[in-house]
Write a structure and sequence with these properties.
There is one protein chain. Helix content is about 15%, strand content about 30%. It has about 200 residues and is of the alpha+beta class. The strands form three sheets. Strands 8-7-6-5-9 form a five-stranded antiparallel sheet, with no helix packed on it. α1 packs antiparallel against α2. The longest helix is centred in the last third of the chain and has 20 residues. About 0% of the residues have low confidence.
């Protein structure tokens, strides 16, 4: 069984910024005579482009902020790289393992305007003026309490039933059903009441 050959994709280890011609040079040796040198982060973006320090990435962060712009930097005193983005609550970090799902949008040397702060995808609605109806100048309708509604309903039903009980057109069984409803409303009717024809109500 033959040996397995593995191929690893590599990129130049250093990117040197030349402010005179506003371009880059690349080298596997770190130059000593220049001050602006970006190290390769050891990773590629989603389209296979190498990622260096000071690159500006577009990466999906979460459902709230969506796609954000992050600046690649090297952590002080370590060999680790990370992305730094700015959101509504301040700076936050993008882990290096997320670089593979990101896109290189530019770099801080040539395209500083592309490093934009993150904003929420779904901003919270402004607080409505509760003193008006839908904030358009119409007053909120006054809604009676449940107890008031029940009391008003009971009062109307009581007046109606009392009028029907004292009516001479009702049959005895109808009178009994009305008296039952009155009792359900916790009303004690006057049993000595008479109909219009003078007959007593039993």
């Amino acid at each position: 069984m033959g040996a397995t050959t593995r191929l690893f994709k590599l990129a130049p280890l250093f990117r040197v910024w030349d402010p005179a011609r506003r371009g880059f040079g690349f080298s596997d040796q770190r130059p000593d005579d220049v001050c602006v040198v970006d190290a390769w982060a050891g990773r590629f973006d989603r389209e296979g482009r190498p990622i260096y320090e000071q690159d500006i990435l577009s990466v999906h962060h979460d459902w709230k902020l969506g796609w954000v712009r992050a600046l690649v930097e090297k952590r002080a005193g370590t060999a680790e790289f990370r992305g730094v983005a700015t959101g509504p609550d301040g700076p936050f970090h993008i882990a290096a393992y997320q670089f593979a799902d990101a896109y290189v949008e530019g770099n801080a040397h040539q395209h500083p305007e592309k490093l934009l702060p993150a904003v929420p995808q779904f901003p919270e609605p402004e607080t409505a003026d509760l003193s008006t109806w839908w904030g358009e100048g119409l007053r909120w309708p006054r809604v009676a309490s449940t107890m008031s509604v029940r009391q008003n309903h009971s009062s109307r039903m009581l007046r109606r039933l009392t009028s029907e009980v004292t009516s001479s057109s009702l049959r005895p069984e109808s009178v009994n059903s009305r008296l039952s409803l009155l009792a359900h409303l916790q009303v004690q009717p006057d049993t000595r009441a008479t109909r219009r024809d003078g007959s007593a109500v039993r």
